[in-house]
Amino acid sequence: MFSHARIWSAIDALAERHQLSPSGLARRAGLDPTSFNKSKRHSADGRERWPSTESIAKVLDATGSTINQFMDFLRPGQVAGQVASNIPDGVFPPQISSIPLLGFAQAGAGGFFDDGGFPAGQGWDVVEFPASPDAQAGVYALEIQGDSMLPLYRDGDVLIVEPGAQTRRGDRVVVKTSEGEVMAKVLMRQTARSIELLSLNPEHPNRTFEMNEIEWIARIIWASQ
């Protein structure tokens, strides 16, 4: 569902649906016109570059589209121009599955995760989320509580995270410390001994931890905003 190619294809399809080029879509959303250029989708060393959730939120707002319509473009086999505002007969929407949901405050307590950061124990709620046969097992949702992650994430926003996923510099991640602190940050640097995290809210300090102080790290793959 959330492969690099599908996300960018969905953006291309959204642009075409509104008779725009990718650069025209970026411009309408108030972004740098080159933000969605094909040359920007991989770094110079070949690593994949992903559009940010803020960029996607801005293009949805600029085009008057809903998140559900954008998710339609993510379906396997979907190509530009084939999704209408109403799903036509014979075309099936993405499969909806229930995934575990927990508040950030609860996530800091014990008993909700196993040693790998996967959901465990009792007390989880559930939330519906589009899934696909190749979706990674163990994906779950965390609900933001409070304003410590403004301006990127607001109280009530839901983050979809994937525990055990490979993380790279610049990824948005949720981290739980051995002291029970749970936070959403940007991964700036990670070595075998330490990890450096950039705060989303400029009013909060960046953080550095020894790796033995970290219980688990999960990559944020989506956010409802």
Apparent shape: globular
Rounded mean pLDDT score = 81
Query: How many alpha or pi helices?
Result: 5
- Quote the CATH topology of the largest domain: Umud Fragment, subunit A
Protein name: Phage repressor protein C with HTH and peptisase S24 domain
Domain Peptidase S24/S26A/S26B/S26C: 100-221
Pfam family, one: Peptidase_S24
Region (Disordered): 25-49
Describe the structure.
There is one protein chain. Strands 2-1-3-4-9-5-6-7-8 form a nine-stranded mixed beta sheet. A hairpin with a 4-residue loop joins strand 5 and strand 6. The protein is of the alpha+beta class and 225 residues long. Helix 1 crosses helix 4. It is globular. The chain has five helices and nine strands. The protein has two domains: 4-73, 434 Repressor (Amino-terminal Domain), CATH 1.10.260; 95-224, Umud Fragment, subunit A. Helix content is 19%, strand content 28%. Residues 78-94 have low confidence and may be disordered.
List the helices and strands and how they pair.
Elements: H1 4-17, H2 22-28, H3 53-63, H4 67-73, E1 95-103, H5 104-107, E2 125-131, E3 140-143, E4 158-163, E5 172-177, E6 182-190, E7 194-199, E8 207-210, E9 214-224
Parallel strand pairs: 1-3
Antiparallel strand pairs: 1-2, 3-4, 4-9, 5-6, 5-9, 6-7, 7-8
Helix pairs in contact: 1-4
